[in-house]
Amino acid sequence: PMESLPVAAAFNDLGYTAFCLTYRISEDFGDKPETLAEDVYKAVSFITEHADEFNVDPSNYLIGGFSAGGMAIAAWCNPETGYQKYNSEKPGAACFIYGVNELYKDTIDVPSFIRYCIDDVHFGVESFDNFESGIADRNISTDYKKVDCPHGFGLGTGTEAEGWVNEAEVFWMEQIGFCK
Fold first, then answer.
1. 3-state secondary structure of 151
2. What is the residue-averaged pLDDT of the chain?
3. Whole-prediction pTM value?
């Protein structure tokens, strides 16, 4: 909540409806794609089923995750374990904020906005570099930056990451062919 709620509020201030999802984390920290993708599916399905009530368009949506949440959305953005398996809409873009799952670098087919914390104590830069190059090598758009700030930067206020929400919005709009 300390990370997701302020970010959801920032997207709301930009005019978007935003949701904060709760998901399970395994002791081995995300190596169970079926669990992670199932949790995302339940949330996406609920939002889709209530799209009129929430006044949202369930197509071309932006999905994001911090740290372990990045692992969850990696499972969702992989057609084999995620959105296609569950017969759901493909995201228009994904935000991986100091969390990725390198296992999916060759299968994710969603444009990816990626921010890595230099000297992150939880994730090595090699995982992020490999993740990004695996996606980019297949001509899928990425926006990847390494920022000097702590793991858990949220909005990034007062750090090199500050402004990432606006950067993510621009990236997302470019991917879905919409200029704001």
1. coil
2. 90
3. 0.92
